[in-house]
Amino acid sequence: MANKMIITCALSGAETSKTQAPALPVTPEELAASAEECWKAGASIVHVHARNDDGSPTADVKVFKKAIELIRKRCDVVIELTTGGAVGMTPEERIAPVSLQPDMASLDCGSVNFGNDYIVNTVPIMRQFAAEMNKYGVRPTLECFDVSHVQASHILIKEGLIKPPYHYGFVMNVPAALSMSIKTLSYMIDQMPAESYFTVMGVGRAHLPGIYGAIASGGFIRVGFEDNIYYSKGRLAKSNAEFVERAVRIAKEADLEIAKPGDVRKMFALKE
Predict the structure, then answer these.
(1) Prediction pTM value
(2) Rounded to an integer, what is the distance from CA 203 to the centroid of its chain?
(3) Where are the domains of the chain?
(4) How far is 197 from 146, CA to CA, in rounded Å?
(5) Could you tell me the mean pLDDT of each successive run of 10 residues in the chain, 272 residues long?
(6) What are 114's strand-pairing partners?
């Protein structure tokens, strides 16, 4: 497993609109089609947000359920749901889709500036989310927007609320949060406990540096419209799959084997 690269594609996020990126998948049908394209291109995990018919973000369990069912009909990609939701959602709204028993779900490990907004994740909220994921057999991705978030995750570990192997998601270059640099990435890695894996999520201009930083540091890659809409300066990406294809090419040039969904299930000890 040591030479395998796991590629996650974050299909849509909660903030980007079709006005900004016409190829953005929004409906359950579009999400499923994009997930299949990414799977064929080499992604083994898709990170899923849901939207209302008007494109606004939602935590509606029925919408998530439809998206999951359509994705699973098309391919065996590992499905990771968001519990970050969108700015303004309550913790109860954000955690509700975990009841659908996806393979994985994000678990934000601290409060953070999010551009002009602010996302609240107190330690009690973290405990609540970890307990719900345990209840439904869902593997958390410990999303960290700051070094302190990695350290905060140790509270959940010490209390037995999450079990190894641990998977961290380092979200870097969110406006008004932690910037992307090798120094900051290295420090975050140093704070992880034993039996940990990590994925680097480079937002905006940090998209490519995030890919190269992940490879250089022994981590995994996340790409997709949630994190970045431009394939290159001034040129919008044609699809999520286009991002995945480039990540696959770069990883292969680094002599890495592209992980399959089965590899992820084995590596992260996911339920069958």
Answers:
(1) 0.97
(2) 12
(3) 4-267
(4) 17
(5) 91 94 97 98 98 92 98 98 90 97 98 89 97 97 97 98 97 94 96 97 97 97 98 97 98 98 97 78
(6) 117
